[in-house]
Design goal:
Elements (H helix, E strand, L loop, with lengths): L1 H22 L4 H25 L16 H33 L5 H35 L4 H12 L8 H10 L3 H28 L5 H38 L16
Length: about 260
């Protein structure tokens, strides 16, 4: 796995440098793409241990988790690999198109824009799948009862005093250790998809041939996206800390070993 990803990364860097040399692109262009890819991959490697550590409050072997560590690691690898593969595929296609059509004056819409968009969108879409799967398993803890799930969410994520039945207390204790992973996936998906669309709107604003109506829409989208991220990121991080604190204070009872949902996607 690591060898494949390393080869893909080296090939990506070589393609970016080759294109920059062939078309005489600005010096900062390959630097930005290479640095951006390196930062994203480093973030993926950093997120992995952080997500695995979300289970640290649960006694090993005491009760089956609804999100086992090996599945967590597999999902992290899949997200990173999805982003890298889409980045490489679109990079090859965009570079080929740029070389065929000649992108000296239109390098960003023909080459830079598709590569940047797919890098983020690929990672965002990749994060949707484990998020959806964990959401289904969380609902399975309460037999699909959304009212009970909201009450558990208020107790685990909202830091509120909520009266829970013994059954729901057990469900909350089992949900809390995996809530940080679910929230992290949601944040990655939300932020990456917004960033991918943001590149498209930036191109619209910078293009002299864009229709004024599209420029207005692009400006509105960017403002809304920035505000949404400013609000969502601290909120998600605060809820992650609350879930970890709840998991620490409410260990999963041994009786929960008999109630593991078997929801698979």
């Amino acid at each position: 796995m690591w060898i494949v990803m390393g080869v893909v990364e080296i090939a990506s860097v070589a393609l970016i440098i080759a294109y920059a040399v062939l078309v005489g692109a600005p010096t900062w262009l390959p630097i930005v793409f290479i640095a951006g890819g390196a930062v994203l991959m480093a973030a993926a490697y950093a997120i992995g241990p952080a997500l695995r550590n979300a289970d640290r409050h649960q006694v090993a072997g005491e009760v089956a988790s609804i999100y086992p560590p090996e599945e967590r690691r597999r999902d992290i690898r899949r997200i990173a690999l999805t982003a890298v593969i889409t980045f490489v595929i679109m990079g090859i296609l965009s570079l080929s198109l740029g070389l065929i059509l000649g992108a000296e004056e239109n390098w960003f819409p023909l080459v830079g824009l598709p590569i940047a968009m797919t890098l983020f969108i690929g990672g965002g879409v990749g994060a949707m799948f484990p998020s959806y799967r964990l959401g289904r398993r969380a609902r399975a803890l309460v037999d699909g009862d959304l009212g009970r799930l909201r009450a558990i969410g208020k107790a685990v994520l909202g830091n509120k005093e909520v009266e829970l039945t013994p059954e729901d207390e057990e469900a909350a204790a089992r949900y809390a250790p995996v809530a940080p992973a679910l929230l992290t996936y949601q944040l990655i998906s939300f932020g990456a998809l917004f960033a991918g669309q943001g590149f498209l709107q930036v191109n619209t604003l910078l293009s002299s041939t864009s229709d004024p109506a599209f420029r207005i829409f692009g400006a509105i989208f960017l403002v809304v996206a920035i505000v949404a991220l400013i609000v969502a990121i601290p909120l998600q991080l605060r809820q992650i800390r609350r879930a970890q604190a709840y998991a620490s204070a409410h260990p999963v009872p041994r009786s929960g070993a008999t109630a593991t949902p078997t929801v698979e996607v």
